[in-house]
Amino acid sequence: MKKLVLLAIAAIAFTACEKIVDIEIPSEESRLVIESEIYNIKDLWKVKLSASQPYFEQESSEDVSTASVFITELGGDTVFLNYTDTGMYVSVDSHQCIVGNAYELNVAYNGQVYKATEELQNALPMDELLSFFLPPNDRSFPTGNYVFVQGQVDNTKKNFYLFKTYRNDTLKSSDLDNDEFGSVSLLNSFFNVNDILGEISRNKLPRPILFDVVEGDTIDVEQYAITEEYFKFLFDLSAQQSRSGTPFDPPPANPNNNISNRGLGYFSVAHLEKRRLVVEE
Q1: Given Cys at both, which of 206, 244, 253, 258 links 116, Cβ 3.0 to 4.6 Å?
Q2: Alpha-carbon Rg of the chain, whole angstroms?
Q3: 177: Cα separation from own chain's centroid
Q4: Greater confidence, 155 or 93?
């Protein structure tokens, strides 16, 4: 009985010691977010500006509509962009980037100037966009139809790529790849496309774009040759977006970028190539 009394007293004591502590979480001031990609393909140049949001107060970001925005081809012309009702700054005419030339983005907003510079990388067009049927097998890939790309790289430099794949106009995958280990694996440079069935029978599979396709599907692949800096930015951004709350997650952080004056986002100059395939039986 004495033990029970002591336990009751201890429980009351611990309950009486409870105290609610409010922890004030610091919130960083809003920062300018700059998003822009321009290409070797002739098109309107576009820049999206917005203000960053506090981590615990995520709402739809507000567009910034009062900035001065222009892009200069270093040693060449300057193109001014105007704010439009699309929420983006857009050039009046279409322009295209030239391989080896550098382009500088300038944004003036709230008395601050933000700059970013990138050079257009060289890249070769994709040679083939093909599909094949993988029969029942003991490999890790299930039976079904697959699509793969074949192409070559510029062997005079390091190569960094982003591949976007659409099925029937819906984005299905975004894949980063480089030639760090000798080749860009998604380009399947050493696969014999003239003998697909023979290669498969010899246990040689191209690296496919990993989603099932069926007869009649329209597949579009966009190949972006990008800078190493943009490759690292996209890699780090993907890691942050994939955080699942485990001890193995990277610490929360904004990816390193090429925007000066503590701006967020990225200004990319990319070499874009496109291929289309309608899957046949």
Answers
A1: 258
A2: 26
A3: 12
A4: 93
Q: Name 152's Cβ contacts closer than 8 Å, sequence gap at least 6.
A: 124, 127, 187, 189
Q: What's the mean pLDDT when you consider all of the chain? A: 87
| Strands 126-134 and 32-39, sheet pairing | unpaired
Please report which confidence band the pLDDT of residue 212 belongs to, taking 50, 70 and 90 as the band edges: confident
Q: Which two tokens stand for residue 4?
A: 């029970």
Percent of residues, the chain, with pLDDT higher than 70:
82
Residues 104, 116 contacting (CB under 8 angstroms): yes
pLDDT single digits (tens) 168-199 = 999 999 999 999 888 899 999 999 999 988 99
Considering only 15-19, 137-141, 209-213, which range has the smallest mean pLDDT?
A: 15-19
HEC profile of 71-125 = EEECCCCEEEEEECCCCCEEEEEEECCCCCCEEEEEEEECCEEEEEEEECCCCCC
Q: Yes or no: say if 127 and 148 are a contact pair by the CB < 8 Å rule.
A: no
Strand partners, 91: 81
Q: Which amino acid is at 117?
A: T
Q: What token pair was written down for 237?
A: 């951004």
The token duo for 222 is: 């966009």
- The secondary structure element, H or E, covering residue 232 is helix 228-241
| Per-residue pLDDT, 4 | 47
Bridge partner list, 95: 43
What is the CA 254 to chain-centroid distance, rounded? 14
